[in-house]
Fold:
Amino acid sequence: MLRGVELDLPPHTLIRIEGANGTGKSTLLRLLAGIDTPTEGRITGRRPRTAYVPERFSAALPFTAAGYLVHLGRVHGLRSAEAADRARSWLDRLGAAGHADTPLPELSKGTGQKVAVAQALLAEPELLVLDEAWTGLDAAARDELDRAVTERVAAGATVVYVDHDPLRLAGSVDVGYRVEGRGLRAVPVTGPARTGPRVRIEATGPAGAALPAGLPGAPEQDALADGVRLTVAATHSDALLRALLTARPPWHIRRLATVPDPAGPDGPPPGPDPSGTAPVPGAVPRSRGRSTPEAS
Structure:
């Protein structure tokens, strides 16, 4: 049972939910996703465009993989051609393009899970709820889902997830909660990843343009005379580059380089350029939203 649960769901935020088996993590996520309704009490707050990925995808449906995705895209209001394009794109990104015409009941568990992930992402949800969604995926698809999560957060979405791996997205989590008793307890989270390979990006934006809000990986930012230098964990570099290049207006990438592992023999990466260490001008603060589930 859950009772009196109050949970902020601000945009541009990655939220991790943890807790022992049977404490109500999945119940909470299903309530947030609108899959279940509380037996008592009520859920308040605006319902954003929401997508949900469970640990196990029920594949007993009369569709092929691509047909199912197009059907779900149409349900979300996409035109058939756009839904088909997005379906192909996500199946390709997740390594399942070769199964586009395979009937869902004939898919392996891993491929079925890729379809479940694709159906959630093709609609570009404002709220993405992932309940052990990485289970059954191969390593490449798990990495792709990690990247997709950072992309959704960078685009302004809220992502709430549960995963058995305590290191899953650990360096990117903004807020953490633990389900205890009948409610939630806030728990500390680690900051953006500071160990392992890192990437340094120097970029220049149009005159007067501010950096996009909620950049993937929460990169370190150093102002330069003619732009900005961003340093981020390598796992987030692709998503960060994509966020800069697809910004409106887009940013120009001037230089890209790896930097030493802070924990390695070369020591920490070089410090900020002496020409400027001030925060990047025009940074956009995060806005806040609120959703208050109450259930028992």
